[in-house]
Amino acid sequence: MFELDYEKVLKKVNKKTAIETIAKKVDKDKSNELRVWMKNENITSGINIDEDTKRFYPFNNLASQIIGFCGSDNQGLAGIEARYDDVLNGENGKILKMTDAKGLDISDVSENYEPAKDGNDLVLTIDATIQGIAEKYLKEACIDNVC
């Protein structure tokens, strides 16, 4: 399922820590495959899948002064990212399960998985070609005039 080094994984799972990260930046299809395998094998504890999302910028740094940027938690911190953060953000997924008074899982009750929901897209009317040309000449002008 995953192309992981057996010895490295074995070392991690044999540590005495409560939580150990085995893999990061796993493709969504692979994590879904793991979920199906866990369900088929009736594995309800011991493996946790934490989802992480990132915003996608189709033109990289183009118009970055307008678009703005996000912090490490994907919260918009400047520009359009900050202004429309509530529209762009989705909802985190959840795993709902029943526990007893001590916080231990009740094994007879199945858990419910609620997948994450994508946020909305925001389409701007910035012409990427014109913006690219403007940024190129602005950069050249700044170099020529020591901005």
Give a verbal description of the structure:
- The protein is mainly alpha-helical and 147 residues long.
- The chain folds into two domains: 1-52, no CATH class; 54-92 and 120-146, no CATH class.
- It is 35% helix and 7% strand.
- The protein has six helices and four strands.
- The strands form two sheets. A two-stranded antiparallel ribbon has the order 1-2.
- The termini are far apart.
- The relative contact order is 0.10.
- The mean pLDDT is 86.
- Keywords: Membrane.
- It is found in: Membrane.
Structure, briefly:
With 147 residues, the protein is mainly α. It is built from six helices and four strands, in the order αααββααββα. The chain has a two-stranded antiparallel ribbon.
